[in-house]
Amino acid sequence: xxxxxxxxxxxxxxxxxxxxxxxxxxxxxxxxxxxxxxxxxxxxxxxxxxxxxxxxxxxxxxxxxxxxxxxxxxxxxxxxxxxxxxxxxxxxxxxxxxxxxxxxxxxxxxxxxxxxxxxxxxxxxxxxxxxxxxxxxxxxxxxxxxxxxxxxxxxxxxxxxxxxxxxxxxxxxxxxxxxxxxxxxxxxxxxxxxxxxxxxxxxxxxxxxxxxxxxxxxxxxxxxxxxxxxxxxxxxxxxxxxxxxxxxxxxxxxxxxxxxxxxxxxxxxxxxxxxxxxxxxxxxxxxxxxxxxxxxxxxxxxxxxxxxxxxxxxxxxxxxxxxxxxxxxxxxxxxxxxxxxxxxxxxxxxxxxxxxxxxxxxxxxxxxxxxxxxxxxxxxxxxxxxxxxxxxxxxxxxxxxxxxxxxxxxxxxxxxxxxxxxxxxxxxxxxxxxxxxxxxxxxxxxx
Length: 447
Description:
By secondary structure, the chain is of the alpha+beta class.
């Protein structure tokens, strides 16, 4: 097992990783920018090293500084969390090349799944259904337009190296295609230094369903059920729940088994999430995230399994500590992403936190590095907390979530707690009858 793990991240996920390590008897090293000197994970870690100024490019994305911190602290493992360098195959390679253990998937798996075109080709060969679309990148405007017409509008133009909605354009009719293609390529080049794009058929009202998997590199892969991440704004998840109210047991079992069989063939290692669009009883692969997910706590809530602990064990060379038959799903869980932003305009709201009170009680978990007097820096993602609620049924979970949101106090800044409180009162959500466009349609109606 590791003696000391360097946590190459910040915020609530850095604190989550620290806690898992501490419970396993592993010492931690917090790396941080000058803007995060007072962050909670920095205060609690056994050692802390400043790796640069506020800009992420000069700190949390600064590979030489992170490796230098690992060397001077004598760390033997490096955990990237999510975001930043977590799905950077070159970083994984460099970490291993310098004698440290990268706590995550193999460089090969990160590289394969990081290229959206290669990922689609790979999973198609492994037997996972994919969204109809181009076989690879499209570059010639006329050929691309002809393919779009063959597929039938509407179509999506998507960045091959992208995520989070960047480099993605929806085209509903032929006369919009050329301009959208050029805009997508330009945006993709600016965001990812890669202008390769591909086409996908646009599904009108699908659910976003993702399957959580974990493998130990021997060919043994286990799935831990699905999460429904359909409440999204601008392709960014807002709320997640497990299990999905849209699936029955047969569909759940079938897609889980399909994913396990596919990833077993490539001897997948560590945590991973295979994401699908689900419409009219059919699943369509969209991407695989080769990392720990923001929404992993809802899976932990319904399975009782500490995913971070298991990920660390596997990175240390241990086999999976459970089989598929050991997984028991219990109850229902919902996660609300609490952001420092206006609940209606979504304008970021960094600043000084005044009163802070996290809700508690049976089945309530809050992952956050906030405390009264903490100043939220303006340089990073606006996610400041995750409220995770578990109940024996979905209705019990909703009642508990409503109570917990009412108890949550974060003063001094704008937060989106009122938005979550409003969403869970809507009849469509109460009925579990929503899709990936529902939230944006709801917000438009409120204007």
